[in-house]
Amino acid sequence: MCATEPRGGCFSTLAHEATHATGHSSRLDRFTRFADRKALAFEELVAELGNAFLCARLGLVPDFDQSAAYLQSWLRALADDKRLIFRAASEAQKAADFLFATATEERAAA
């Protein structure tokens, strides 16, 4: 069960998928801005970094072993762009900030 998993468990997966959701055109519009042949690898990199940022902000410990292996595989796919990790981290931070701002707004409206 999610609530009893000590290392973030399904919350880590939820954070990854929530980061993907911010890429929609009605949110941060990442999917149209990064729509080349490497877009999938880049998006997965953004989502996994977003997962780590969100879990850290929530006080959860993501499964760093799994994240590291996942990130390493996508970075290999994108090895020709040495600045990519910085672009991905920037997009992941925007996504985390968007998710927290949206949650704060919804909580205030309730």
**Rg over alpha carbons:** 14 Å
* Tally of discrete structural domains: 1
Strand content: under 5%
Number of E-type strands: 0
How much helix is in the residues? over 70%
**Element order: H for helix, E for strand:** HHHHH
Q: Termini separation (Å)?
A: 28 Å
Class from secondary-structure proportions: mainly alpha
Summed up, the helix count is 5
Shape: globular
Assembly category:
single chain
Flag low-confidence runs: none
- The chain-level mean pLDDT equals 79
Q: Give the biggest beta sheet.
A: none
Q: What topology does this entry show?
A:
Blueprint: H1 9-21, H2 30-33, H3 39-58, H4 64-77, H5 84-109
Domain Polyvalent protein metallopeptidase: 11-91
Pfam families: MPTase-PolyVal (PF18818)
Organism: Paracoccus cavernae
Describe this structure in words.
Residues 11-91 form the Polyvalent protein metallopeptidase domain. This is Zincin-like metallopeptidase domain-containing protein. The chain has 110 residues and is an all-alpha fold. It has one domain (8-109). The protein is 70% helix and 0% strand. The protein is built from 5 helices and no strands. It is globular and about 45 Å long. The model has no long low-confidence stretch (mean pLDDT 79).
